[in-house]
């Protein structure tokens, strides 16, 4: 932790310090500067929809690669004898996720368990970056690499969480159509929750049912993304606010908050994984 004056020049206000730490390293097509890295939030906004957050992409890909490498190494070193620490960890995670999938998903799909394992560990690793002191990596990036902005928690970027949730949503639509067929999926959206044995009344309720079920369907990826983003963004903001306090108060408050935040980190990864399993279970079930 550090005060805003350390490493950001004299006279930096608390508001400027917070804005700096919440600003992504953005690359995009600026109306005046062309393809370039944004120097502040105003330039990033002018770059529009197709701008990309380089720091979010870098850290999410790096942490995903670490996950793949660790579990590949654990599988490569697995043996029937006394397992080592790495094999124990990998087996524990696989057993935990496999048990969660078996308890919730009763269909037959070889994708669900690997997907759930990937989500659980990857989201956990991205959330875990929130425990790195708020000035440590940004200051290193600025002083050593000459990079002005560096957000290190990918899940505090709504683009990352929404990207993951939209991927899950695409799988929901795919398996709903594959298992139920286009006719069955459409019937699921239009013939519930209100129905009747009378055909006239039954079809009169179709627009209402479509509205209700459509909103529920679209709400799944949005709620999945915003729940993860909101919890981690709030946690990051509190760490930044603590960093604005005098040094002795920083350690007095940051350590208890970090210990509590560990629960949030683990819980949010678990919730994202379980909701993914539940949504895909619903996609595989016939009405």
Can you walk me through this structure?
This protein is mainly alpha-helical. The protein has one domain (56-284). The protein is built from ten helices and three strands. The protein has helices at 14-21, 41-46, 54-76, 85-104, 112-128, 136-143, 158-190, 199-204, 206-243, 247-284, and strands at 26-30, 34-37, 52-53. It has a three-stranded antiparallel beta sheet with strand order 2-1-3. The longest helix has 38 residues, at 206-243. The model is unreliable at 1-9 (pLDDT under 50).
List the helices and strands and how they pair.
Layout: H1 14-21, E1 26-30, E2 34-37, H2 41-46, E3 52-53, H3 54-76, H4 85-104, H5 112-128, H6 136-143, H7 158-190, H8 199-204, H9 206-243, H10 247-284
Antiparallel strand pairs: 1-2, 1-3
Q: What are the salient characteristics of this protein?
A:
mainly alpha, 287 residues, 10 helices, globular, 3-stranded antiparallel beta sheet, single chain
Question: What's the quick description here?
Answer:
The chain is mainly alpha-helical. Helix content is about 70%, strand content about 5%.
Number of helices: 10
| Spans where pLDDT lies below 50 across 5 or more residues | 1-9
Shape: globular
- Measured by DSSP, the beta-strand proportion falls in under 5%
Cα end-to-end separation? 54 Å
Order of helices and strands: HEEHEHHHHHHHH
Return the average pLDDT rounded to an integer: 91
Tally the structural domains. 1
**Rg calc:** 23 Å
**Percentage of helical residues?**
55-70%
Sheet/helix structural class: mainly alpha
Number of DSSP E strands? 3
* Major sheet characteristics: 3 strands, antiparallel
Give the neighbour order of strands across the main sheet: 2-1-3
């Amino acid at each position: 932790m550090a005060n805003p004056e350390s490493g950001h020049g004299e006279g930096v206000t608390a508001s400027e310090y917070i804005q700096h730490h919440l600003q992504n390293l953005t690359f995009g097509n600026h109306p005046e500067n062309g393809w370039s890295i944004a120097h502040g939030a105003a330039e990033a906004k002018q770059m529009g929809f197709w701008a990309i957050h380089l720091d979010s992409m870098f850290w999410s890909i790096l942490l995903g690669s670490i996950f793949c490498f660790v579990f590949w190494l654990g599988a490569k070193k697995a043996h029937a004898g006394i397992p080592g620490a790495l094999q124990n960890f990998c087996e524990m995670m696989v057993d935990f996720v496999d048990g969660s999938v078996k308890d919730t998903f009763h269909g037959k799909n070889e994708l669900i368990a690997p997907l759930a394992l990937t989500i659980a560990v990857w989201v956990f690793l991205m959330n875990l970056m929130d425990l790195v002191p708020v000035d440590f990596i940004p200051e290193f990036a600025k002083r050593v690499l000459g990079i002005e902005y560096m957000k290190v928690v990918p899940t505090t970027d709504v683009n990352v969480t929404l990207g993951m949730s939209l991927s899950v949503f695409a799988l929901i639509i795919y398996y709903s159509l594959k298992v139920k067929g286009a006719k069955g999926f459409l019937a699921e959206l239009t013939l519930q929750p209100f129905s009747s044995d009378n055909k006239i009344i039954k079809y009169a309720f179709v627009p209402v049912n479509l509205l209700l079920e459509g909103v529920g369907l679209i709400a799944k990826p949005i709620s999945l993304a915003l729940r993860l983003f909101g919890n981690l963004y709030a946690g990051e903001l509190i760490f930044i606010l603590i960093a604005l306090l005098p040094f002795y108060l920083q350690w007095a408050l940051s350590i208890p908050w970090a210990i509590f935040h560990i629960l949030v980190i683990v819980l949010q990864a678990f919730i994202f994984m379980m909701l993914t399993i539940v949504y895909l279970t619903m996609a595989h079930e016939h009405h």
